[in-house]
């Protein structure tokens, strides 16, 4: 067989590229593995290992006053001890603060993100993002203490209230103060994913909806909101999950009236030195958050399906109307 015949043979031509393709595929998988390695290391050392340690501690007990924990005898007693009426009351308050705080962040953050992504000139969007992130240039505790000073009876707001004849307002150490603090601390976490989703949106779709007769509200409802759903979902998770475990904000601003589950967990580790009970409370809190997130994901999926179905029905109705 000549060289010309070998090169023209179909079987030989097809097999000649198998080696390079396999090598390229292996190289691609190797590169992907290297890129995923830092994430895997981070998850192992900062999530899986701490979770396993906390889970192990939760099956132990506190044998004496000067011992934080002991796993000589394993039992579920700490979970039964954690499931007290006080825990359920505090969890209900925590869920209320977290849900309402997340909703308020969405109601405030969506217009801001929409203005930044759609209305603001691109050359100023970087500046706007920087202003949104300015609070994160300072420590979380320092920002919260700033609100403690602002809401204290000796603050400027209290002086204005007294000068106007309304007396000294009770702003600090209330559930309202905690609500204000969590909205201030977590609002940027809602704005950023919303901005990313809205900024990537094809704005020509809004122009097309106007050309087809849709007003501003219909364009917002039928174009902007469906395209922003991924950003809305990401923002809700980024705000709700850490807010459920927050203990700094209620400790600084809430007092007894605004206590949350995170405070109970922290007090068992820092004050009572009962690491077994604190670990059991932490595990219960994580399971509760996971359950809420799963329910939220199901509801969010159903809402997306309903919106998609309604839009399809509207498109069919519009097509029938145009044909008639």
List the defining traits of the structure above.
324 residues; mainly alpha; MetI-like fold; 78% helix; globular; disordered N terminus; transmembrane helix; transmembrane; MetI-like
Task: Write a structural description.
- The chain has a single domain, classed as Orthogonal Bundle (MetI-like fold).
- Helix content is 78%, strand content 0%.
- It contains 14 helices and no strands.
- The chain has helices at residues 3-8, 10-15, 18-58, 77-82, 85-119, 122-133, 140-151, 156-163, 175-199, 204-211, 216-244, 248-254, 261-270, 275-323.
- Helix 9 (175-199) crosses helix 12 (248-254).
- The termini are far apart.
- Mean pLDDT is 86; it is low at 1-16.
- Its main location: membrane.
- This is ABC transporter permease.
Summarize the entry for a quick read:
With 324 residues, the protein is mainly alpha-helical. It has 14 helices and no strands.
């Amino acid at each position: 067989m000549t060289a010309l015949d070998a090169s023209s043979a179909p079987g030989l031509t097809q097999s000649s590229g198998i080696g390079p393709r396999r090598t390229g595929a292996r190289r691609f998988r190797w590169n992907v593995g290297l890129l995923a390695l830092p994430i895997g290391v981070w998850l192992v050392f900062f999530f899986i290992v701490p979770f396993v340690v906390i889970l192990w501690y939760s099956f132990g007990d506190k044998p004496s006053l000067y011992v934080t924990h002991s796993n000589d005898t394993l039992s579920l007693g700490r979970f039964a001890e954690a499931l007290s009426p006080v825990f359920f009351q505090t969890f209900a308050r925590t869920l209320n603060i977290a849900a309402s705080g997340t909703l308020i962040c969405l109601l405030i953050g969506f217009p801001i993100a929409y203005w930044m992504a759609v209305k603001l000139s691109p050359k100023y969007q970087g500046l706007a993002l920087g202003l949104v992130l300015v609070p994160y240039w300072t420590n979380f505790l320092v920002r919260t203490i700033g609100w403690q000073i602002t809401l204290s009876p000796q603050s400027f707001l209290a002086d204005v209230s007294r000068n106007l004849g309304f007396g000294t307002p009770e702003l600090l150490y209330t559930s309202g103060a905690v609500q204000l603090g969590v909205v201030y601390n977590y609002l940027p976490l809602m704005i950023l994913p919303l901005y990313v989703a809205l900024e990537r949106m094809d704005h020509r779709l809004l122009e097309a909806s106007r050309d087809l007769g849709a007003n501003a509200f219909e364009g917002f409802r039928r174009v902007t909101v469906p395209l922003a759903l991924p950003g809305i979902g990401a923002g809700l998770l980024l705000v709700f999950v850490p807010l459920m475990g927050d203990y700094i904000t209620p400790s600084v601003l809430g007092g007894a009236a605004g206590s949350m589950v995170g405070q109970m967990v922290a007090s068992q580790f820092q004050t009572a030195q009962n690491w077994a009970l604190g670990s059991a409370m932490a595990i219960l809190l994580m399971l509760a958050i996971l359950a809420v997130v799963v329910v939220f994901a199901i509801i969010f999926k159903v809402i997306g399906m309903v919106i998609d179905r309604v839009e399809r029905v509207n498109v069919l109705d519009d097509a029938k109307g145009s044909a008639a």
